[in-house]
Amino acid sequence: MKEAEKILDAFISYTESSYFSHKRALPFIKWAGGKRSIISELLKFVPTSFNDYYEPFLGGGAVFFNLSDKIKKAWLSDVNAELVLAYKMIQDNPDALIQSLEAHKRKHEEQDYYYKIRGKYISKDSIETASRFIYLNKTCFNGLYRVNKSGKFNVPRGSYKNPLICDIDNIMLAHKTLEKAVLKKYSFEKIDPKEGDFIYCDPPYDDTFSNYSASGFGKEEQEKLRNYVDKWSKMGCHVMISNSDTDFIRKLYSKYYIYEIQAPRNINCKVEGRKPLTELIIVSYQCQN
Which of 125, 194, 239, 260 has a Cα-to-Cα distance from 41 of 20 to 30 A? Predict the structure, then answer.
């Protein structure tokens, strides 16, 4: 049987089985500032009930995947076009994506293969583009997404012995979970929530790495986000924001409820530099914890 047919058969068997009934999808990419390591803390601040769910700084989507049982409809968005495309391909065509990732997996140890793929910029083929994005994310240094001023990915190869380039089980779980999601490539200003909806914002943190897009995310963008948080809160939305514990952020959100949590940092190239930092969880509603 051909490789593509085997993958398709696996997809069908997963879909028809009860596999999805007892497992939850995890983020299918690594992401700087991802929330997987502090998800248990974040969930303490989620409102007890809400209507639709919005996440306009999607990234790895750890909060979405962990809240999936409580979400009826999700509106997921990000300014990173390749990231959103990867989600869309998992949502729409996971079997073809798996086939492409398996091809990357077979060739990964070839000399300079990583840099060959890194230098191969955006393709007109959506599956190829999404597969390239996931492959580079799984094999680059620390899963760090960084682009230069021209918008080109420029992170060096990581030194992993056996990177999990194609996690078929998790891709299938993510595919199932994303059935309830609408995916869009746009900035936070364009979301259209209603009263009773829950909005979780995880922007690039103040005074930290922010080169996830060519335009960056500085003080002006932080203030703009706060203005939209004001707007959404007045509409009756439940809003939760993660950010750095800086004087600027504390002042910016001084009229909201502010909580402190301890979060690990894994991007520093030196292990001794990966010390826990205090982060802020800011909410527009009173929590019960």
Answer: 194
Q: List pLDDT tens digits, range 146-178.
A: 877 777 888 999 988 889 999 999 999 999 999
- Token couple for 259: 């909580």
> Is the distance from CB of 145 to CB of 212 less than 8 angstroms?
yes
Cα angle value 42/43/46 (rounded, 5°): 100
Residues facing residue 240 across a β-bridge: 200, 283
How far is the C-alpha of 268 from the C-alpha of 180, rounded, in Å?
Answer: 36
Residue 237 within any structural domain of the chain: yes
Domain range holding 67? Answer: 3-283
Any domain includes 289: no
The three-state DSSP-derived secondary structure of 170-232 is HHHHHHHHHHHEEEEECCHHHCCCCCCCEEEECCCCCCCCCCCCCCCCCHHHHHHHHHHHHHH
Angle at 26 between CA 21 and CA 30, to 5 degrees: 165
- The pLDDT score that the predictor gives to residue 233 is 98
pTM equals 0.86
| Residues making up the chain, counted from first to last | 289
Name 53's bridge partners. 74, 198
Residue with tokens 């809003």: 239
Percent of the chain that is helix, strand, coil (3-state, to 5): 45, 15, 40
Mean model confidence pLDDT for the chain = 87
Q: How many domains does the chain have?
A: 1
Instruction: Write out the DSSP string of 251-287.
Output: HHTTTSEEEEEEE-----SSGGG---EEEEEEESS--
- For residue 83, what is the domain's CATH number? 3.40.50.150
